[in-house]
Amino acid sequence: MGLLYLARGEPLLAAQCFQKASVVFCRQPLIWLRLAECCMMALQNGLLDKSEIRVNVVGKGKYRKLMIEENGLVELDGSTQCGKLSLPLARACLSNGIYLLNESLLNESKSDRESTLSVGMNETKEASSADHGEANTNSDLKEAKGGLNQDIIQSSLSAFKNIQSREKLLIKQALLANMAYVELELENPIKALAAANSLLQVPDCSKIYVFLGHLYAAEALCLLNRPVEAGAHLSAYLVGQDDFKLPYEQEDFDQWRMHTSSDCEETLDSSTGNARDSVFLKPEEARGALFADLAALLATQGHHDQAKAMITHALTLIPNNVQATVTAVYIDMMLGRSQDALTRLKQCTRVSFVPGRLEVRAS
Asked: Which residue windows does the record flag with biased composition (Basic and acidic residues) (predicted)?
């Protein structure tokens, strides 16, 4: 039920279900990943929108002042384990998931070593028995049948372990990518960089998560005033001096989306759709994000003309992206094109006034 609510874009109801399920599945990394996803979707839906500023006017006359409300927490109805959705909660959930997954992988590794040792000992015993030559026809038939059944069971177990390993690999990539994203949102670039680097070191990492790893690492390095290293991450996709290749193909995107949403696809009809699809970057949109990030990097280094060309490319690919638009506004202002900057701001900002409150929010 929680997964269904999450797929429908209702993170608060999803979180309530996941929190109740966590009483049973508290040792499963996936339950913590899902809870973190609820927090992140709440942010994306504007429920934890950090760009929202609510200002109350208090006092009268010359004593009037503006009071800024603190935002970023959403209360859940009823008695729940966590009580609130927030980015710090997302970080805690992801930390739990990473710890439990690493513990599971360690135990799995120990089990594999013990299994290998056991097989070696059995082979030694079989060789010893063959040397003695003490076997009759009936016992040989029984052992052959038993061996055949054992081979089938072993083959089934091996296939099951392979499926589990692939699932754990996907969960690990999702946990690390989400951790990097959350740490960036919480303005902790050092921790974000650590998570992104860990993601890039995952064996057989999917192209989409490799892209996210480079993107988050570059953003973290920019915040740490290390532009050269940030540029190195972006240059992994650079073609020539002013163009980017697709970081992944449509086939990679479709396969990744299938893996991440297959659990709930049977419960959703075409009219409902999958709200989680909206956060996936299509290949061309991912390419646009690379242009936007390089534009921001060039702008911080004072190369405003080059940055202008890059952000223009970005906005043709991701025209409704607020971050890209804000970057374009900054570049226009630095180039003295204030009227262009004002026009862009009007396209991405909504200002409303209600009695006693001014609200400014990115749409």
From this structure: 123-141
